[in-house]
Amino acid sequence: MEPRGQGETSDDVIGGGVTSDKGARDSAPIDDQQVPWATLAVSSLAVFAVFLDTSVLFVAFPSITASFPDVAPAELSWILNGYTIVFAALLIPAGRMADRRGHKRTFLTGSILFTVSSLACAVAPTAGFLVAARLVQGIGAAVLLPSSMALVLRGTPHAKLPFALAVWGATGAVAGALGPTLGAALVEAGGWRWVFLINIPVGVFTVLVGRRVLSESADPQSTVPAPLGVILLIAASAAVSFGLVRGEEWGWSDGRTLGPVAIGLAILVVFVLHQRRTLAPTIDPALFAIRNFAWANAATIVFAVAFTSMFLSSILFLTTIWGWSILAAGLGVAPGPLLVAFLAPFMGRLAGQIGQRPLLLVGGLLYATSGLWRLMMLGPESNYVVEYLPSMLFSGLGVALCLPQLSSVVGQSLPPNRHGVGSAVNQAFRQFGGTFGVALTIGLLADTSGIVDAAGRFDRVWWVILLGGLAVSLLALPLRTRPAHRVAPAAAATG
């Protein structure tokens, strides 16, 4: 079965996509269809742990460095950067593997690997052991993440997909945003090792319950990707990620930063040429001929940049300009993630009634408004309720309307035999966007001239939030999404 890249079929289904299976399930009345809560809970909980670990270590890092005083900070930075690089580099190959070997099997394998490596991190006797365990943890995260979305796609009735995918997408957003707050609380309560120990009960629950409630799905007829394509993709992802994560330390114009990025982009060009010629591509180029897949992924990487810039700059502003503690700053930004968690299910149901495109258009504008509010209101004098809280509420509304719906549009645009690799592409774009958002924020806040004061430098980041929100609304304009009750069963099952 080939991805649908021509005609109107791929754009005429809800969110511009297809469901995982055909026939009876799609033709059943919407009122008779139920969300598979067990599958959604297990998949979302694992996603929560994965994205929590992408941000929780930022606040635990000072405590870790204090535990290993004889190790240089540059070496210890691999505790943070190694996880990010491995995670981003392996997402797409892991998604392709999940499609072939089975989504449940791959998901449980990744969950076990993530849980065991989390325990290894918690008991690490040396810095080198901790770095190695974090690399394995990144592998586990990359293996389980694409499978988790595929399981939701395969196990959810078509009419309920907007709601289910909105919950799944919001889980990752909330986890990433709450990471520093939770990390600070854990470090203060019991030390940095508790940051890793918290993953253990989540992992045990995921594996034990997942074995019982998840249903296997796969496409054993799919071709095995050519090894050269997988190697090229991993090399390109690793090189670009390496340059971006080390840019703060080396300088953004330093050859050691620009070199890996340039090499990674060059390898990426070779990868694209290889994918067009090989009979066994790692990423089927025809996926990008699907309108909603292409445009939603473009919006995803833009929003990831703006989201990461907003969150990182929020913590830095509250701690450096207003002088708050890291725990107080985490609590200060918490209303945004809490609003996302509260609104995401309602927005998912609304998307099922009106389609995702209207929500993305409004959400991008609201997110841009949060940046505009900061430009107009924030300054060196602290006034949280009047100056800061409204911007967090605007951004929370924007995230609830945008990030889950982008995952939903991408997921529903995929043919059944591309659920794993297609969701992996989307998550890889999100991961790279987040990495670039961190790099961009640090670069914009750098004092290179001494002309702009510390508070004024944050205005540069507020512009990123404003322009990022507007760009998401513009990128949502070409999307074709329709309410669930207007989707014809035949179209929904076409693949």
Q: What is the strand and helix layout of this fold?
A:
Layout: H1 24-27, H2 37-52, H3 57-67, H4 73-76, H5 78-101, H6 103-122, H7 127-155, H8 161-190, H9 193-197, H10 199-213, H11 227-250, H12 255-277, H13 291-321, H14 326-333, H15 335-354, H16 356-377, H17 384-412, H18 419-445, H19 454-476, H20 489-492
Give the overall silhouette.
Answer: globular
Please identify the oligomeric state: single chain
Please give the count of helices: 20
CATH superfamily (homologous) name: MFS general substrate transporter like domains
Total number of beta strands: 0
Rg, Cα atoms, Å = 22 Å
Query: Which regions contain 5 or more consecutive residues with pLDDT less than 50?
Result: 1-32, 487-495
SS-derived structural category: mainly alpha
CATH fold annotation: Growth Hormone, Chain: A
Indicate the mean pLDDT. Answer: 82
Attribute tags:
single chain; 495 residues; mainly alpha; Growth Hormone, Chain: A; 20 helices; 75% helix; disordered N terminus
Walk me through the structure:
Mean pLDDT is 82; it is low at 1-32 and 487-495. The protein has one domain: Growth Hormone, Chain: A, CATH 1.20.1250.20. The longest helix has 31 residues, at 291-321. Helix 2 (37-52) packs antiparallel against helix 7 (127-155) and helix 18 packs antiparallel against helix 19 (454-476). The chain has helices at 24-27, 37-52, 57-67, 73-76, 78-101, 103-122, 127-155, 161-190, 193-197, 199-213, 227-250, 255-277, 291-321, 326-333, 335-354, 356-377, 384-412, 419-445, 454-476, 489-492. The chain contains 20 helices and no strands. By secondary structure, the protein is an all-alpha fold. It is globular, with a radius of gyration of 22 Å.
